[in-house]
């Protein structure tokens, strides 16, 4: 059913000259939605036409509203020949479909042509009038909000976290249709762009439907990927976490904290204001079962005085943990693609009750409210190699085989849930495709799960002991005697009650309340392996045979590098393996941290294979010395000074070089019990590396050649840099792409590794150099993605953000660590820690009030401190183009997000047939990336937003043919458009006292 | 191991002013890298050549993409392609439109045509300004000229509005446009001692006092052309040299006033007739376009060189001209037109010092002109 879409074309500017004779253009505009097209009048002879058209009205189904983009084409009128297209604008009207987001899209959009790039701008107004569709069998899901942010968005709290949703849509790739042989590249590109817009719209709608079925109203951590599988088609996949989000009442709401308000607030209100569909009987989840938990925040939370309107986002309960994973049965359903609606609904209902998913909920979040996460087990990952087949539907089959893998892995670890599934990333090469999923196994707090009520008693005994949150998540979730993998357990250095592993690898962000020492550090393991060229199944087998070895190698590298920095935990681990014609590339990035709860890491011990040879011994001694020096240097650089190092001596080498039975490099120490069983793990404090062949020497060298960032620079790939809390507001998001051509085809594995390592290292060095004016600064959310676009080509694309921080205040007072940490992170996380205090208050009410009070005291100066530094930021007054900030993080330092205006999910193709004239591939891609940024900014501005958070560039596929002077590039970007305000704007009341306080505190810090 | 592609794009434009200057100066990427390395980028930051190269390349590409926008600076403010903070926009524009005085001195007064553009490599060789930079500067002149040529209203203001330049730069461009439009000959060897700033100052005076716009801002003409009526009026000055009585009378008035006030009095008295004839002849011929072009060279030849050979100082000249015009005024035969005309000459002896003098007389100049207007 129904909605009325209205569009108005106001004006254009900076149009290109289309008529050489007059140096002017006779422009008019076609507005198309679905199959309806309207045209404006021709505005003759102007490069800045003022059409000021009437309102074009489209009466359409809400299903179409979700799927279709509004397509605006600017043309040059030609009396005698065909009209020339100037360019197009696609506007995703999805943000207009939910109630609290943007109400109108209005602004200047770049007119984009796939051949010429941006050609002028057009001013457009778009509105939607939506009627409610109460039909239970409807196919639309208007009103479900989508967020790319992988945490609960600011300004909301999660009433219920329903679990994982995923969907995929398959279609034929227009580029490979017969018609492509006769149409122009422009037409082909446009067909493709439009199709992908359609497909992602459809995908969102379908995911939305699932969410509605689950009773949710939003998807958090929405991640959409494309697979261009050539002739096998085009697959668009998406995953996310379904939630019921409640909008936090701003300002006065938090002050009064009524006992009843939050529960009834969000879920019901949408039905009132008419834009959001009514959920019917899907609703009870919002009001019913979780009330006891929901009462917690309201009864005890004392609102923070310094930010009265601050959202208290937290997830108070997770009622519905069943995972609506819809493994499509039957191959047919996939190929039916777009219109298999009702059938699918049935299928879905059948498969939904899979018990397994109930037990093991998936989430796509990376940061969680305090208390949500009880224990973290470790990283789980699954990869599958698929042979694409034209008849089968590749995506369908892979998703089916895929998730069970992950699930079974988890079961082995014996952990309750996978808290963060990091995308089902894939790497496709002709007919072979690697699908990967990874995540962190974790135990969630059963108190937060409705269904956990049953086993609440049992599990509570085990887990409920109020272990301090600063170390609780490190405690092992599994049985000590029945460990899923070998690890050396010790008692937690914080509470001394629970066991912790010696190292912890996770894919999530560092919990805001974790106790750490020093700063975090970006750690990367790179690996390049040669592979024989192959075809079909043999090729796939070869690849899958290599995979475990690659993973092992990467893991070893990570471990070594971690030790070298004397740290003991990795967060945000992301391993990417991509496959090329003749090589496999593996890249693992993570952020190393020293968790004070975990034992101090041992040093690295070098062992020679042939004792007695003096030269070798000398050489080894040298290396050993260098390693020890490096460790010492790193310790100083990252300020890793564990507060209470007791008898454990860091890096004390207890050499056991005669241990010959080991494989040539061990990667993990084991506990006493296991050492007898597993010969590969010795009982030792130091980490032994054996130098037994040239490979190992190379490896050690590469360990040492990893340059640490220059002074004043830090880097990490997580949301926030562990150990840095006082961000100032300067921000520079960037995308960098580098492609390296291997000149020598016959490279050894080693040489290849070196090339690849250098490539990544040089990229980092480049960043440091280019951004040196921002010192002191931190590169956050460094996301590397590697690809092998062609034989002998390695492509690395990086998106990250550089943020400045206030150097003087980097020293933390250890005593306040858990609390200050919370508040100095993003605003909401401050809320989390407060919530935590208040939550625990209901359990042990004694300490709570004290806690929350102290946390307030400590937190306010810090936030003030940050907002003070914000004033020094540049003001962008006077410019006629509104400034749009972009960041891959979920927050903007020094600001507060007041509203999410919609998800940005855009796909662009750019092609050129005059590559040389555009400055080669670099020039071509440079302008394309700049254009993509420009278009994202324009869309955000048109939605009324002033920033994009959680921005990511998910695909950047570059195909070049320099001989033909041609190049084509596809880029897919996404993010959340938001409105932010500067913190200072809202902190008028009672801030003076705090500022005074903060001044003194900062002075203290400085001295 | 060739780097096939290497780009780095920031959401907000990333540029260093140093690299921008190198780009503007016409350095190739490799030369720019060399300069940067020598300039100490290496020391201050542990950077290798390839890092500097990659950075330089990225910035050069950015500048190249910006160049199109810089051609119409008003677009830069509302374009969407690059996010450039306003202060950066100002820097970009101001630097892009900045020019080398040595270079502009060479093309001043020349027709901004393709022909001149062809000579740019000679100019480049002569001035030491790189050809690329010469081209940019020349194209800037041409572009500004083309835009303001047809515009009404005050020239400086027009340039400032259309190119968002600073006041100083806008004035300089006004001078360039003015010279190019009137095709004043400035290339002769005798004029070589005048710097661009000297000539720009003269142009400023001419624009302010001799053009139609100067007389009345509301007039539908522009600042670019000299006021034809005014030039016609100047013909009246001829009596000063044709009428013998008047000439003597004028001389005696001037001499009486000057006596004892300057060391060069004898020379002044002796040369009075010659100088007066020279000045008046120049003035009366200005209705002729050809003679307008030779205005500066005539002034130097007919007036300044004789004075210089008599070792006049700037003060002498000031004194002489003041009294020359005052006396002419007293003679009452002419209108104060002369004043306006005469004052300009001082510039040519010792520009640095005389500049001050001119400014101090500016109020008077304007007054006289207004008076003249009223009278006529």
TrEMBL record, chain A:
GO terms for molecular function: calcium ion binding; calcium-dependent phospholipid binding. One of its GO terms (biological process) is insulin receptor signaling pathway. PROSITE patterns: C2 (PS50004). It is found in: Cell membrane; Cell projection, Ruffle; Cytoplasm, Cell cortex; Cytoplasmic vesicle membrane. Residues 1-109 form the C2 domain. Residues 249-271 have a biased composition (Polar residues). Its main location: membrane. Gene3D superfamilies: C2 domain. Keywords: Calcium, Cell membrane, Cell projection, Cytoplasm, Cytoplasmic vesicle, Lipid-binding, Membrane, Metal-binding, Protein transport, Transport. Residues 249-341, 843-878 are annotated as: Disordered. The keyword Calcium applies. SMART domains: C2. It comes from the Eukaryota. InterPro entries: C2_C2CD5 (IPR037785), C2_dom (IPR000008), C2_domain_sf (IPR035892), C2CD5 (IPR038983), C2CD5_C (IPR057815), C2CD5_YbjQ-like_dom (IPR056430), C2CD5_YbjQ-rel_dom (IPR056431). This is C2 domain-containing protein 5. It comes from Oryzias sinensis (Chinese medaka).
Automatic annotation (TrEMBL), chain B:
Pfam families: FIBP. It comes from the Eukaryota. The chain crosses the membrane at residues 340-365. One of its GO terms (biological process) is platelet aggregation. Signal peptide: none annotated. InterPro entries: FIBP. Keywords: Membrane, Transmembrane, Transmembrane helix. GO terms for cellular component: nucleus. GO terms for molecular function: fibroblast growth factor binding. The keyword Zinc-finger does not apply. This is Fibroblast growth factor (acidic) intracellular binding protein a. It comes from Oryzias sinensis.
